[in-house]
Design brief:
This protein has 1039 residues and is α+β, with helices and mostly antiparallel strands. It is 14% helix and 32% strand. It has nine helices and 66 strands.
């Protein structure tokens, strides 16, 4: 009985603990108010995997006026749509769980609305992302439905029956890194409601291509491909590969072998000539790869060409197209666009040169005008109107694929990083007085880009690399470059550098620069010389680093398969002698004596981590020397689990962080610089945040589910910099509010959160009329930021945000954010605008003066709840103005501010009195009195137009009066933050004197003429007409 009672008490306790934990678990809604700025770049874009385009009516009223709609699918950035022929693009797939696109197809019956999208890229290079099934939209991309095939990791092609699009074929390439039964050719005959697999070979072989005969949809061609990638090798080809044909719509299949290569085959690429479907082209990967052509629907074949620009890298270059009107004009996409005019016998590389980015994957030929082409490359989308002779680039597709990212300490600071097949780039995180355009991105390096770091001792030096550790130092002042890659010492083994080699500046000693091969190297002279700090820190498994034979039936070795290498390096910010190193073959090494001795911590890692798992990131704590966070990535063995661990004793014991809510294998983890419990985790499927040291994580949805490869936190600006491998760089400005968001605060109804001090900038933009065809990123707002947390969305009742000065006076009232979670609103550091005299003309000084630097109080009022906080505004020391000059400017503006309000009061007195006299005169029985009242009203009307201008048109103005002169002077002084000129001071005195005289005139009128009118009204028993008081004026015009 006692035992049962104990268990009951324990059960109740556990339920209570779990309930509290559930209440305190962070949700994505909490983070929703922290927006991210997408910086691009689009000047070099990223890998495009699919293109579909069609002409649709401009609107229902003009069915014959058509516009070109373009859909672009990307390697890991989702789907973008252009409604204006490529002038502008918008993302339409961002709310889906997978953004890696393998294939797209428009429904021929409903090209204006129905698009099929297969996720999971089929250009299966080492850095390729993953997919999660087949999607369809029936409204042009507004909404999407997952149609199934979720377990098919990558979809290579979608082919619809042109006569009955409810019948469609899906080429399921399947898993890249492991065996899987979820692959083969799938068919639906009911518009995607159900699918059946109609062709399957084995768990190693997927379907790489499918094509339906446009003249006889019962004829279907299918290419099966056996392939496998490992971390250290790639194999294309095997007995499972082959070309198949069906003549009954996919129910039965015949393998085609006549005249085709014997032996093991690799990837096969198909293209049917639309104008003569009997002609079929097949690019066949074999020991002697070649292009083949059939003129009898695949019964016989002729070998046409084995040119390098036709057969190059078939595993990666898997696209080919035939002109819709000329069956002999063939386009083959490889490094360049190879074009044949004679049915594939000979090819001309029309696109060779700098006009078109190399590495081509997607193609569209305008069916109404074959001169018009679209091509998708590793660097974005290009358009030609002369069959490929000349090209223009679409410059509004931010699809950049970053590997690593860093920052410097310039003001504004620069963001730097390396991109897949697009070199290395840097960009300021803000542009003074404007937005960030393509022109603000500066190229710093070539090749495939990876690490880019700026020397903190000699900031004219920047270090970058291309694939395989080819490290280079560039002098930003002279633009000279110098190779600094370490070389093997005499008698030592060849150095092994990872495809994505780490180059790291020490976080503890700015003189130290690290690079990793199988050994750790350090330079103290900016890369001129290197000191080896370690023995081989990898497993040194010779079976995994001989990559010369990698590729399968065709050799392919570009350093992408380099293995048994160092992948991540991090020294402790608290101790330069404590260095952690992670390798791609599963070793986690550390030294506590600057490299003299090393300890492999793998021996202490829990058995829940598969041995040999790639170490993707090491993050030594900035708060505790013995604490370190590590992410492991096992996707190269088909395991997509996120593995994240923490040690608090230098690696002797480990705790696995709770990643049940996290999707995608883990690339990077960063601990906040201020709050040790705030963690940022980047995975293949997005960015995650933990407020409790990793006990719970929530997805940050301000960035789509694109691979997050690297994360940095700028220590001066407190910005979170996120490098994605599909959508470029994002910046979440000022994470100070998030640092204060402890998990125990999640149950509080209203919490004020701190923000970083705001530097008060006075920067003007420049006049630009650059058109709409370029991607533009916003600079961070110059407004002072106010942040607070709401447990639930505010729906009913008043709510406001107030700014108070040091005296407690409310100087500004702002509209509040009312969303659940963190809210962030901006204050332009201006007071409430002055009350302005009524006038037929707009304006008149309807903006408040910019406040002085100082400390202000923020008050959030939600019903009967009140939360207060501090807002610090700093003087911009770089502006060249002293605080005394700022105070002189503010003093002048406040004198005018009060004058504008005083004039508004005087004018309101005049107008209220005028209108009251006019109305009351109509009800007076004494005609003489009525006439006198109307005359007084007329006098007031005339006086009014001596103070404000009569109504002006857009292009013609009347003579400005006092109201307009005040506004003009107010605007002129406000446009420059320094001291007013002597002339401006003189005008202030003149205008204020005029206001004072006008006020005295109204008071005099009230004491004489109006008083006499009131005496006569009293004789008739009528109420006197009162002059508007200041209190009444302020009450009726209160904010």
């Amino acid at each position: 009985m006692m035992q049962r009672l104990v268990w009951l008490v324990l059960l109740v306790f556990m339920v209570a603990v779990l309930a509290v934990a559930a209440q305190q678990a962070i949700s994505p809604a909490v983070l929703g108010g922290l927006s991210a700025r997408a910086l691009g770049p689009a000047t070099c874009s990223g890998r495009v995997t699919a293109i579909e385009a069609t002409y649709v009516p401009i609107d229902s009223a003009h069915p014959n006026d058509r516009r070109l709609v373009i859909y672009v699918g990307s390697a890991a950035g989702g789907v973008f749509k252009s409604r204006d022929g490529g002038l502008t693009f918008e993302p339409i797939f961002d709310k889906q769980d997978y953004l890696s696109i393998g294939a797209m197809a428009l429904d021929p019956r409903h090209q204006d609305s129905v698009l099929w999208v297969g996720t999971g890229e089929s250009n299966v290079r080492n850095s390729v992302s993953i997919g999660g099934g087949l999607y369809r939209t029936t409204d042009g991309g507004k909404t999407w439905k997952n149609m199934g095939l979720d377990s098919v990791e990558r979809i290579a092609k979608i082919a619809l029956n042109p006569r009955n699009p409810d019948t469609l074929f899906v080429a399921g390439l399947g898993a890249l890194w492991s065996d899987s039964p979820h692959r083969g050719l799938y068919r639906s005959t009911d518009g995607g409601r159900t699918f059946e697999r109609v062709l399957y070979v084995d768990e190693k072989t997927g379907c790489a291509d499918v094509a339906v005969d446009p003249a006889d949809p019962r004829v279907v061609y299918c290419a099966m491909w056996q392939f496998r990638r490992k971390a250290w090798s790639f194999s294309s080809g095997g007995p499972g590969s082959g070309l198949y044909k069906s003549t009954d719509g996919g129910t039965t299949w015949q393998r085609l072998t006549n005249d085709l290569p014997s032996g093991e085959l690799g990837r096969i690429i198909l293209a049917i000539a639309p104008s003569n479907p009997a002609i079929v082209y097949a690019m066949v990967e074999a020991r002697q790869s070649a292009l083949y052509r059939s003129t009898d629907r695949g019964q016989t074949w002729e070998r046409r060409s084995a040119a390098v620009n036709v057969t190059a890298r078939p595993f990666y270059f898997a696209a080919m197209a035939v002109d819709p009107y000329d069956p002999d004009r063939l386009y083959r996409l490889t490094f360049q666009l190879a074009i044949s005019e004679d049915g594939g016998k000979t090819f001309n590389a029309f696109s060779y040169g700098g006009a078109l980015h190399p590495d081509h994957h997607a193609f569209w030929i305008d069916p109404t005008n074959p001169q018009h082409l679209l091509i998708g490359t590793d660097g974005g989308v290009y358009e030609s109107f002369d069959r490929g002779r000349t090209w223009r680039m679409f410059r509004s597709l931010p699809l950049a694929q970053f590997y690593r990212v860093s920052y410097d300490f310039d003001d504004p600071y620069n963001i730097m990083g390396g991109l897949q097949d697009n070199g290395s780039w840097m960009v300021p995180h803000r542009v003074r007085g404007g937005s960030i355009g393509n022109c603000d991105w500066k190229s710093t390096g070539w090749g495939d880009g990876f690490a880019v770091v700026r020397d903190r001792v000699r900031p004219e030096f920047i270090y970058f690399e291309s694939q395989g550790g080819d490290a280079v130092r560039r002098n930003l002042r002279t633009n000279e470059t110098r190779s600094i890659q370490p070389r093997a010492e005499l008698g030592m083994p060849k150095l092994r550098f990872n495809w994505n080699t780490p180059i790291v500046l020490s976080s503890a000693n700015p003189r130290y620069l690290y690079i990793g091969a199988q050994y750790l190297y350090r330079s103290t002279d900016h890369g001129a010389t290197w000191q080896r700090l370690s023995p081989d820190l990898t497993t040194n498994d010779s079976t995994k680093y001989d990559t010369q034979e990698s590729g399968g039936v065709t050799r392919d070795n570009t350093s992408a398969e380099n293995h048994c290498t160092i992948y991540t390096i991090a020294d402790s910010p608290l101790d330069e002698r404590l260095i952690w190193v992670g390798t791609d073959d599963g070793n986690l090494q550390r030294t506590t004596d600057g490299g003299k001795t090393w300890m492999n911590c793998v021996q202490w890692l829990p058995r829940s981590l598969p041995r040999g798992t790639w170490v993707s990131c090491v993050e030594p704590s900035r708060h505790d020397r013995q604490t370190c966070f590590v992410t492991f990535d096992n996707h190269t063995r088909g395991d997509m689990t996120p593995y994240v661990y923490r040690t608090t004793d230098l690696g002797k014991t480990w705790t696995r962080l709770q990643t049940d809510s996290v999707r995608g294998f883990a690339h990077v983890i960063r601990q906040d610089l201020v709050n040790p419990n705030l963690l940022f985790l980047g995975t293949e499927l997005g960015l995650y945040v933990s407020l409790d040291g990793g006990n719970t994580f929530a997805r940050y949805k301000g960035i789509p589910a694109t691979p997050v490869r690297d994360i940095q936190i700028h220590p001066r600006e407190h910005d979170l910099i996120v490098a994605t491998h599909g959508r470029g760089v994002y910046v979440i400005d000022d994470i100070t509010p998030l640092r204060a968001m402890r998990s125990e605060l999640l149950d509080s109804p209203l919490v004020m959160l701190p923000t970083r001090p705001t530097v008060q900038r006075f920067e003007s933009g420049f006049q630009e009329f650059s058109g709409s065809d370029e991607f533009i990123a916003p600079s961070p707002s110059d407004d002072a930021q106010i942040a607070y947390y709401l447990r639930g969305r505010h729906l009913i009742g008043p709510m406001r945000v107030e700014i108070l000065d040091s005296s407690g006076a409310v100087i500004a009232t702002l509209p509040p954010g009312k969303r659940k979670g963190i809210n962030r609103i901006g204050w332009g550091m201006r007071m409430n605008p002055p009350r302005v005299a009524r006038s037929p003309n707009p304006g008149g000084g309807a903006f408040g003066p910019t406040v002085l630097p100082g400390v202000y109080t923020v008050r959030v009022v939600e019903g009967d709840r009140v939360a207060t906080g501090r807002l610090v505004i700093l003087h911009d020391t770089s502006a060249g103005l002293s605080l005394a000059e700022r105070r002189a400017n503010f003093s002048a503006l406040m004198r005018l501010y009060r004058g504008i309000e005083e004039l508004a009061f005087v004018v309101e007195q005049i107008l209220v009195l005028r209108d009251t006299l006019s109305v009351r005169a109509r009800g007076v029985g004494d005609s003489a009195l009525a006439q006198r009242m109307m005359k007084l009203a007329s006098t007031l009307d005339s006086a009014y137009y001596t103070l404000v201008a009569r109504q002006a048109s857009l292009f013609a103005d009347t003579e400005p009066q006092l109201r307009e002169k005040l506004a003009d002077l107010y605007s002129a002084i406000a446009s420059y933050p320094g001291s007013p000129t002597d002339e401006q001071e003189r005008l202030i005195g003149q205008y204020l004197a005029q206001i004072e005289r006008a006020g005295r005139w109204v008071e005099s009128l009230a004491g004489s003429t109006l008083a006499d009118v009131n005496r006569q009204l009293a004789r008739y028993g009528q109420q006197p007409i009162a002059l508007l008081t200041k209190e009444e004026f302020l009450q009726q015009s209160a904010y």
